[in-house]
Each structure stands twice: as C-alpha cells, then as structure tokens.
Amino acid sequence: MTARELNDLSAIVAPPQTYTPAIIDPDRPRWAEPRWRGVLRASLIWAGSVACLVFVPLILLVPYVIYRIVNASSQAVITHLESDKTFLFLSVLGVIPAHVLTFLMCYLLVTGRRKYPLGKTLGLSWPSSWSPLKGMLICVLIAGALFGGGALITYYLPGEKTQLDMLIESSAGARIVTALLAVVTAPLVEEMVYRGILYPAVANVFGSALAIAIVSILFAGVHYLQYQNNLAVVGVITLVSLTLTAVRAYTRRLLPCLVVHLVFNGIQAVIILLYPFLPKPETSPQPVPGELLSLVTRLFS
C-alpha cells in the first residue's frame, strides 16, 4: 500500500475534528465577531427573550380565557381577570416554558450550535485571583447590600401595589411558582441574556462604561411596563442591574453575577413563601419594612 493510499485510509477512519479555540475569552466570544454582527445577534436574543415572556404564557392563558368566556359573558370575564386566581397562577406558570425557550436560544448562540463549551464561553468561573470561598463571601455581601439598599429605597419612596404584589397575594400556588422562578430559572436565564450575551457584544463596540449603562437601561426598561405605577421599584431594579453589570465588567466573568443574582433572589423567595405569616399594616395599603422589607420581593427577575 502506497503512502497516498495510507493517507486516504486514515482520512476515512479518523473521526472528524471540530475546531476548538485554544483560548476562550468571555469578553470576546467567537459568536460576537465581527463586532457589529455580534451586537445584532445579541439584540435578537434580547428581543427574543422579551417576546418569549410576552407570548409564550399565552399558550396557557388563551385556552383558559376562552373557556371562561364560553361559560360566562365576555365582559364579565375580562373585567375580573386581574382578580382571577387561576388566571394569575397560569400567567406566572407560563414563565417557566418562556425561560426554557430563552435558555435554548442562548445556548445555541453561545455554543455555536454545540461547537464550543458553554461554561468557558460565558465565563462561568471565578476570577483567577479569587478562591471559591472568597468569591462566595463577596457575592453574599453584595447581594445583602443590594437587598438592604432596595428596602430603604422602597420605604422612603413608597408607591402603589404592582402586578407582582397582586400575584403574590392571589394564591399559595402563585407564590410557590414565583419563588421557584426566582431561584431556579430567572437568575440563569437573565444573566445569560444581559450579562453573558448583551454585555460583551455591546462592550466590544462601545466600551465597558457605555455597555453597563445600555444593559442596565434595557433590563429596567423590560420591567418598566410591569412596575410603572411604582417608580421606586424600577429604581431598585436599575440599581441591581447596574451593580451586576459592573461586577461582570470588573471580574470579566459571569459566575459572580449569577451567584449575586441567585442569593438576592433567594432572600426574596424565602420572604415570598413566608408572606401569609408576616404582619400586615392596619391602615395603609403601602407595605412597610416590617412586612416584606417594603416588598422588595417585587424584584424576582
């Protein structure tokens, strides 16, 4: 057998080689090149995540509304939707498939359709100068400071009850699903979209300072329509996003942001579950620090 025949045979027998870059930089991921195309891809992922939150829950809500209309007048059904416990429960339950679909979109983009490792591409590791213990301690302190600051803001700048307040008060099922979302899917999905994908794409074009501002505005803007009757809550959401994105810029890693978000939401999830047992104000509908720390629990996302 000639050398040429041996080469042809080895090409047939050898498994196909996939390209794996020697160094994977979370700040300059392969999917974000060229830079403007990376911004476009990140923008489409962000728009897709918003569309999932708006339209995917309709899969559960529309059949229920049709069922109610068939068994009652349409005007009566529409008028009482905001107080319909089943409707409210289905609206929060529908966020689960929305988050799953968003995660799949992010996964396919970040991994280049399973060509590159998800964790390394996103930066799901501690900075080299941090030990795991040091990283956890720093993240817990940041989350605690954010929670305390948010409680003070909502106390001194009171506002009306939001959609989330009504959701938590509606039923035990809605509270449980909301708490699960807060610690199981929301931190991972939102950090992937905003700090894992949007931030590096925008920072590569406009720089880190402007990227922090843009990502924070987009994050707060998504929540504005839901919380527009309570600007203090929108302010706290903006503060949280600014802090998380600054942590991403400083550490050049996504894991610290994910841990801070998880701890912050975990505190709120416990309070959400304890809501029925907490003292309620006697005269004012506006919550006070003794009840849910001024309902900072609104920030479950």
Oligomer: single chain
* Proportion in β-strands: under 5%
Shape: globular
**Tally of DSSP helical segments:** 14
Distance between the termini: 65 Å
Radius of gyration: 23 Å
Largest sheet: none
Average per-residue pLDDT, rounded, comes to 83
Taking pLDDT < 50 over at least 5 consecutive residues as the criterion, the unreliable ranges are 6-20, 283-301
| SS elements, strand count | 0
Task: Please give the share of residues in helix.
Answer: over 70%
Specify the structural class.
mainly alpha
Q: What string gives the helices and strands in order? A: HHHHHHHHHHHHHH
Task: Describe the overall structure.
The chain is mainly alpha-helical. The protein has a domain at 125-298. The chain has helices at 3-13, 35-55, 58-71, 74-79, 85-93, 95-110, 118-122, 132-156, 163-170, 172-206, 208-227, 231-251, 255-273, 292-295. Helix 10 (172-206) runs antiparallel to helix 11, helix 11 (208-227) runs antiparallel to helix 12 (231-251) and helix 12 runs antiparallel to helix 13. It starts with a helix and ends in a 6-residue tail after the last helix.
